[in-house]
User: What shape does this take?
Amino acid sequence: MTAPRIFFYVQHLLGIGHIARASRIANALVKDGFDVTVVTGGLPVPGFPGEGVKTVALPAVVASNAGFSGLADAGGRPAGEDFLHARRDLLLEAFHAARPDVVIIEAFPFGRRQMRFELLPLLAAVETAEPRPKLLSSVRDILQENRKAGRDAETAALVSDHFDAVLVHGDPAFIKLEDTFPLTAAIADRVRYTGLVTPPPAPEPTETFDIIASAGGGAVGAELIGAAKAAAALMPDNLRWLLIAGPNLPEADFTALSRETAANVTLVRFRKDFPSLLRAARVSISQAGYNTVGDLMRSQCRAILIPFVAGGETEQTVRAERLQALGLADILPENGLTSALVKQAVEKALAAPRREQVSLDLDGAEKTAGIIRSMIANSSPNSKFL
Assistant: This one.
């Protein structure tokens, strides 16, 4: 039996959320017997995409500012036209070499408009390929609110003209696509909910901490970790704190945070066993990114969320407010965050009982693989992939 070939494009620009979610999906596809090639376009992240996944690393680009309005190369220099054209050509070469049965594009066309210089040519290549592969968009459950007229209509038109399905990695019982994408009705026949993409239930941790403060990728997490460290100094020293600064936190910030760290506080950049550590923790302090919240939903620890709002970002605030309404989290503001606010929120969380397990669908990676396999099989009654 021939393994279906998947060509999966993912571009992370600031944090590591996009590459982490895409990697979990890619790993589930490999386990389900797919031949997966992941094309990455951001800075390397240790451990991703993962074992068994073929990778193509394009010359990296990153967001040149927190508002995602520009692109820079790995050295922080503005990405020029020649550089971007070379990337586009490498992407198209990789597509033709892979000869995929299915192409998955993460975020686009709902996001990643900065990457149209290479993604629109990729769409054209898909349309002219013989045989034409299935084309899928892979999006998180909550989209960034569009601030410019016409953007939603442009997105809906691209979906209608090119995409066979939109894989929404969420549970409609928590939030529906139309809650953050007003034109969902125009593409409703393409929408497939997969459930939230979260890790499998974690094993018992090898060590335990009372409070874990984490900053995701860390590119914009210095203030969160700094406030948590300062709050720890104001609280009893029998509480064990773990501060996870993130692999992308600037080195100068990490060095500054490392100074005068108390004996009950451990500062690291990354922990692969983060889901396991949450299982034993009493309180988590974090931003409200998709992957971190997914990890939290697999645990029973109390959550304090500090949504990322720089550059007009709305996605994390929507997620945090939904969780707060369900009694699953408390919220602190990113702007004006202080050690006193963190201390007060932690004390409240420590005084509360461990919360109940959530009833949301958390098996999104495995269900994504099932949806794709069903789409391939149904497109051809005599499919070699049945």
Observations:
- Confidence is low (pLDDT under 50) at residues 381-386.
- The chain has two domains: 5-198+363-379, 211-351.
- Residues 81-98 form the longest helix (18 residues).
- The two ends are 9 Å apart (CA to CA).
